[in-house]
Amino acid sequence: MPKHEGLVSWKKLLPGMYLDTPGNSREFKTGDWRAYRPVLDKEKCIKCGMCYIFCPDLCYTKDEEGYYQVDLYYCKGCGICAANCPKGAITMVLEEA
Q: Does domain 31-94 have CATH number 3.30.930.10?
């Protein structure tokens, strides 16, 4: 099987291709199958990092202000971040068509 170079949309993958190596999900942009996306309200956010801790896709990174920002290239819109935010600072909104 050929080694994948660079990022590719999941829609271009053939069944079973490239998923033979554990931990290689960062090589594939999986965010385009999302129906909802998380939106952060910085006024409610206490920068606790719970969104980062609970995100199953490791989509969150800390910015220079200390807020955790989602990388929508990889976010699948599961809503686990919003469900675990202790201050309700993350709202899941319908993705634009």
A: no
